[in-house]
């Protein structure tokens, strides 16, 4: 029986899987059983920041694997200590809590926020979030995820959540006054919400409101972090500093790793017994995390990523002009882009399928937004191949509908 049939027989059906059995990943490309190659423009959903099988990462992985794969949290985890130290030095004074995934990073933040509001004298409770946000799928985090098809009617953990519209500082202030939430959590760029970047003035205004009303300002950088937007973390494009910063996805170089950085003053709230995880932080993941930081910060990876993103943006803007209105908008930041097409959801699906047939993997979110999460290593020739193929597919749309 083929892989697709076996997948359907033995693995629960929680993703719309493509019938591609990947046998190898190298650089910016994935290869399947039949020898087809695919330019990977969504990098395992913002995970493979440096493409596949990066030789330096593989070398560091092998080194760590030859030492130890797993130890308990009762011992000193040297790769994790090094990674935490570097993350703090690259962001703001505080401490790290590590988890295995993004949703667990959110869960940890929910528990830390709860401890903070209990010791704070104000009458505060709950967390404010933006409409269309995505913060994870476990029961605590899913409640913060304001997309109906994700949260559905699953029984969510019992704490108040208040939804407010993106870009509306007045509504946010009213919410702070009326509901007195303990924290405000947001993505600097709404990811699965359709690649909607927050404006700099909203981010800075929200941070100022949080300070004024003593509300913890929590940035979910699970998708935007690790150089994705051009800085190591997206908030570093602005003057704000969050109280809590959540990371995951790209941080483990392809292995499961997530966590949060809590600023000084919040970083001693957790004490032994408050929280933990058997596997996190995996020494393997932490070693890869250090390797990713080496490449981004010491081997010029971040700068190269910015250049590569600039080339991609220029090419797409140029395509937009030529597309006769079919490509309505290119939005996002750095290597996190949403292409808004002036076609129906069915047409977008057809374009996605056609691109896949031609060897380009793209993601679609919010039905009509093509989401690109390319590796920072995307070369100009990769961009040219992709924009050329996309232009041809857009032209076909014109002829189909003529
Ligand atoms: C992916 C994502 C999460 C959840 O991370 P998982 O590792 O899938 O649990 C949370 N927040 C944002 C912004 C994300 O993009």
From TrEMBL:
The cross-references to InterPro entries, in alphabetical order and at most eight, read: Aminotrans_3, Aminotrans_3_PPA_site, Class-III_PLP-dep_AT, PyrdxlP-dep_Trfase, PyrdxlP-dep_Trfase_major, PyrdxlP-dep_Trfase_small
Q: Pfam families this protein is in?
A: Aminotran_3 (PF00202)
For activity, the cofactor(s) needed are: pyridoxal 5'-phosphate
Q: Which UniProt keywords apply?
A: Aminotransferase, Pyridoxal phosphate, Transferase
Gene Ontology MF: a single term: transaminase activity
Task: Report the CDD domains cross-referenced here.
Answer: OAT_like
The signal peptide here is none
Family recorded in the similarity comment: Belongs to the class-III pyridoxal-phosphate-dependent aminotransferase family.
Q: What is this protein called?
A: Acetylornithine aminotransferase
Native source species: Salibacterium halotolerans
């Amino acid at each position: 029986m083929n892989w697709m049939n076996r997948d359907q027989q033995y693995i629960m059906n929680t993703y719309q899987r493509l019938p591609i059995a990947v046998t190898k990943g190298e650089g910016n490309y994935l290869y399947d059983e039949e020898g087809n190659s695919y330019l990977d423009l969504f990098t395992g959903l913002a995970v493979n920041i440096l493409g596949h099988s990066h030789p330096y990462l593989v070398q560091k992985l092998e080194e760590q694997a030859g030492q130890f794969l797993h130890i308990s949290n009762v011992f000193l985890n040297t790769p994790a200590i090094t990674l935490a130290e570097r993350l703090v030095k690259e962001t703001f004074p505080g401490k790290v809590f590590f988890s295995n995934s993004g949703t667990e990073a959110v869960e940890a933040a929910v528990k830390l926020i709860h401890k903070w509001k209990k010791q704070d004298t104000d009458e505060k409770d709950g967390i404010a979030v933006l409409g269309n946000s995505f913060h994870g799928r476990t029961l605590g985090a899913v409640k913060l995820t304001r997309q109906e098809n994700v949260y559905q009617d699953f029984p969510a953990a019992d704490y108040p959540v208040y939804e407010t519209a993106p870009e509306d500082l007045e509504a946010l202030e009213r919410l702070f006054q009326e509901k007195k939430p303990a924290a405000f959590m947001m993505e600097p760029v709404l990811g699965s919400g359709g690649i909607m970047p927050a404006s700099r003035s909203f981010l800075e205004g929200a941070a100022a409101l949080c300070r004024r009303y003593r509300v913890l300002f929590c940035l979910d950088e699970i998708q935007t972090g690790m150089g994705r937007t051009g800085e190591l973390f997206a908030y570093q494009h602005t003057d704000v500093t969050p109280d809590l910063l959540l990371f995951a996805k790209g941080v483990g170089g392809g292995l499961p790793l997530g966590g949060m950085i809590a600023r000084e003053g919040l970083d001693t709230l957790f004490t032994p017994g408050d929280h933990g995880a058997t596997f996190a932080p995996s020494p393997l993941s932490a070693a890869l995390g250090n390797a990713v930081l080496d490449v981004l910060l010491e081997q010029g990876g971040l700068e190269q990523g910015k250049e590569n993103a600039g080339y991609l943006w220029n090419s797409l803007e140029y395509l937009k002009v030529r597309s006769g209105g079919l490509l309505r908008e290119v939005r996002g930041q750095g290597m996190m882009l949403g292409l808004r097409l002036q076609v129906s959801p069915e047409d977008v699906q057809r374009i996605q399928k056609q691109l896949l047939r031609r060897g380009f993997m793209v993601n679609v979110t919010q039905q009509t937004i093509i989401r690109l999460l390319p590796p920072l290593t995307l070369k100009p020739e990769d961009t040219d191949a992709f924009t050329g193929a996309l232009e041809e597919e857009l032209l076909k749309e014109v002829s189909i509908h003529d």
